[in-house]
Amino acid sequence: MTQPLVIVPARAGSVGVPGKNFKLLPDGSTLVERAVKIGQQIGQVMLSTDAGIAELVRGMPPPSPRVQFIQRPASLAQSDTPMSAVVSHVLDLVPGPPDQPIVLLQPTVPFRTVAQVQACLDESHLNGSQGLGYAIATVREVPRPFWRAQPMQSYMDLPEPRQSARPLYVFSGTAYVWRRADRWPDAWWPVIEDGQPYLNIDEPSDWAQLVTLLSVQAEG
């Protein structure tokens, strides 16, 4: 199998938690460093960022030939920039064979493991061999009390009975895997996650929870 190309998107700005990707955590790591360290064990890492030298030096592990920087233009580093545009920018600059596995690791998921990412790669390869499509995305189940969540308009109609509620799932962001030839997939085959410590850092409360967890781990 061709070596995977791992894309770690890490812009310097953030609305919910300013500078979160390069902000130091209690254990001395950063979100971007955690993602890159996992990526290095999977394949060649491309860090797509608009960050300056100061942020990169502070936020990165020691230099490695398995990590390269892609300087992202400001137009691709906005809060509303679609991830598909960021990925396309990297793929346009970094050549590779059509069947090369592409792995997207968002830094905002700090507790991912190599095993989780490898499971997605294995699932992608298996699905491809069975004609089911190569695109894989991790998902997590929404807590049961929210299974009946609906848009407000839906409550103006006859609501479904509680007994008919079905599980709901959301993208977890732990890993996305697909084939280079697909550029950016239109649909994803879900891999359900459970049982692992999980946080997705978006709001100040998420960051505070992460800091608390890491501080407890350090004391233990």
- Strand content is 15-25%
Specify the CATH architecture.
Answer: Alpha-Beta Complex
Task: List the uncertain runs.
Answer: none
The SS-based structural class is alpha/beta
- Kindly report the CATH topology: Spore Coat Polysaccharide Biosynthesis Protein SpsA, Chain A
Helix count equals 5
The CATH superfamily bears the name Spore Coat Polysaccharide Biosynthesis Protein SpsA, Chain A
CATH class membership: Alpha Beta
Strand order in the largest sheet: 3-2-1-4-6-5-7
Radius of gyration: 19 Å
Q: Give the biggest beta sheet.
A: 7 strands, mixed
User: How many structural domains does the protein architecture include?
Assistant: 1
What is the approximate shape? globular
Secondary-structure element order, N to C: EHEHEHEHEEEH
Q: Please report the total strand number as a whole number.
A: 7
Summarize the structure.
The protein is α/β, with parallel strands linked by helices.
Q: Can you offer a commentary on this structure?
A:
- This protein has 220 residues and is α/β, with parallel strands linked by helices.
- The chain has a single domain, classed as Spore Coat Polysaccharide Biosynthesis Protein SpsA, Chain A (Alpha-Beta Complex), CATH 3.90.550.10.
- It has 5 helices and 7 strands; from the N terminus they run E-H-E-H-E-H-E-H-E-E-E-H.
- The protein has helices at residues 31-40, 53-59, 83-93, 114-129, 204-219, and strands spanning 5-9, 44-49, 67-71, 101-104, 136-141, 169-179, 189-193.
- The chain has a 7-stranded mixed β-sheet with strand order 3-2-1-4-6-5-7, with helices on both faces.
- Helix 2 (53-59) links the parallel strand 2 and strand 3 (67-71).
- The chain starts with a strand and ends with a helix.
- 29% of the residues are buried.
- The mean pLDDT is 86.
